[in-house]
Design a protein that fits this description.
- By secondary structure, the chain is of the alpha+beta class.
- Helix content is about 20%, strand content about 45%.
- The chain has helices spanning about 35-45, 75-85, 130-135, 155-160, 165-170, 210-225, and strands spanning about 5-10, 20-25, 45-55, 55-65, 70, 95-100, 100-110, 110-120, 125, 140-145, 150-155, 175-185, 190-195, 200-205, 225-230, 240-245, 250-255, 255-265.
- The protein has an 18-stranded mixed sheet that branches.
- The longest helix has 13 residues, at about 75-85.
Length: about 260
């Protein structure tokens, strides 16, 4: 029997039981994808991250309860937090993650984790049949897509917060999910958002780092700036600092370890 350490971390928050929870499992050898998917289903969080030492960093893979995903912000933040907080990396080191989205890095900066992710430009598109109806939206300001995730701008953050999707209907829409967003009426934030992904067995994701690679590209063109403070307005809520540098996005967030234990295999 092999005991594998795991940690549960609330990401994009400095308060327990806020932000987005992720499990981080530290592997001692390569495991089949089917095994990792089974563990993620057992953990039943929006993401479970698996770390395996490789080259000058770590192989990092992310699984929802239903599928492996190519990019995940909050579980990357949680992984970096674990490596730094447990002393596996020194405070002055940079974490290198080998992923399905290429090489990603993270570093610790004055109590924040900073992730270096790819920028994801959004292209305008006609909404898929039933998309707006499943959201209860009639007159969006914008509908766009990057990869397979829709982005829909609404008139106000009040409308974003009040949105009550029909998840059964939304699950039938092709793609990986939808982000709704608007300018923020609170001056401490530039924009707010919510993310729904019932296609990946996540009705609402509490805080979604990868989606902010799309939001950064979109709001750069609208607000004519490259640095933002963003709020994801889920029930748990989360704060992100976002900065565009060329074709990359630096995402900053905080994290709190909630529990730790061992996976008995």
């Amino acid at each position: 029997m092999t005991n594998l350490p795991f940690y549960q971390v609330d990401a994009f928050t400095d308060q327990p039981f806020h932000g987005n929870p992720a499990k981080v499992c530290l592997l001692d050898s390569q495991r089949p994808a089917e095994w990792m998917q089974a563990v993620a289903s057992e953990m039943n969080l929006s993401e479970t991250a698996f770390l395996l030492p490789e080259a000058n960093g770590y192989r990092l893979r992310w699984f929802t309860p239903g599928v492996e995903v190519p990019l995940c912000g909050h579980a990357t933040l949680a992984s970096a937090h674990v490596l730094f907080s447990t002393g596996r990396l020194r405070p002055d080191e940079t974490a290198h993650f080998h992923t399905l989205s290429g090489l990603l890095t993270a570093r610790s900066l004055e109590g924040w984790m900073e992730l270096n992710f790819p920028l994801k430009p959004v292209s305008p598109v006609e909404p898929a049949p039933g998309l707006l109806e499943s959201l209860g939206v009639t007159n969006p300001r914008f509908v766009g897509i990057n990869d397979t995730e829709y982005l829909v701008e609404l008139d106000s953050d009040a409308e974003v917060r009040a949105c009550q999707p029909n998840f059964a209907r939304l699950k039938q829409i092709p793609g990986s999910g939808v982000c709704i967003t608007s300018r923020s009426s609170d001056p401490q934030y530039d924009f707010v958002s919510r993310v729904f992904a019932p296609q990946e067995l996540i009705d609402e994701d509490p805080v979604t780092g990868s989606t902010h690679c799309r939001l950064a590209a979109y709001w750069r063109d609208i607000l004519k700036k490259t640095s933002f403070t963003a709020y994801q307005a889920s029930a748990r809520g989360g704060v992100l600092r976002v900065n565009i540098e060329g074709e990359r996005v630096r995402l900053r967030g905080q994290a709190v370890t909630i529990s730790q234990g061992e996976l008995l295999v």
